[in-house]
Design goal:
Elements: E1 11-16, E2 19-25, H1 31-34, E3 41-43, H2 47-62, E4 68-70, E5 76-78, H3 87-96, H4 100-103
Antiparallel strand pairs: 1-2, 2-3, 4-5
Length: about 100
C-alpha cells in the first residue's frame, strides 16, 4: 500500500489445523529476494504481539482508501466499502495504544 508511508510489511499468517502461525520475515517471497540471498523468517510466539500483527494485517486487507486488489489480469481494482478505511491510520492507532513493555 503506497500512501504517505510505504507499507511493506512482511507478516505471514498460516493456519495449521486451526492453530494460527504468525511469522515476520526480512523479505517478501519474490524470486529476486530468494535467489542468491539469505533471508530470515521467524515465528511470533507472544500472544499480544501476534494480536497486534494480525490487527495490522487485517487493516491492510480492508484498506479501501489506497488498497487495491490485484486480479492477475494486469488490472487492479479499488476495494469496495461504504466507510473509508485507511490502513495507515489504523496502524498508527494500533501502535499508539501498544505498550511494548507489556509484550516482553
Amino acid at each position: 500500500i503506497v500512501d504517505r508511508y510505504l507499507e511493506h510489511t512482511r507478516i505471514y499468517h498460516f493456519q495449521n489445523n486451526g492453530q494460527p502461525l504468525i511469522y515476520l520475515a526480512s523479505a517478501d517471497l519474490m524470486t529476486r529476494n530468494l535467489s542468491k540471498r539469505i533471508e530470515v523468517a521467524f515465528p511470533i510466539n507472544n500472544e499480544r504481539a501476534r494480536s497486534l500483527l494480525l490487527s495490522q494485517l487485517n487493516g491492510q486487507l480492508q484498506d479501501n482508501v489506497k488498497g487495491r486488489q490485484a486480479t492477475g489480469k494486469k488490472a487492479n481494482h479499488m476495494l469496495p466499502g461504504k466507510e473509508s478505511i485507511s490502513s495507515q491510520e489504523k496502524m498508527f492507532q494500533l501502535v499508539s495504544n501498544y505498550n511494548v513493555q507489556d509484550a516482553i
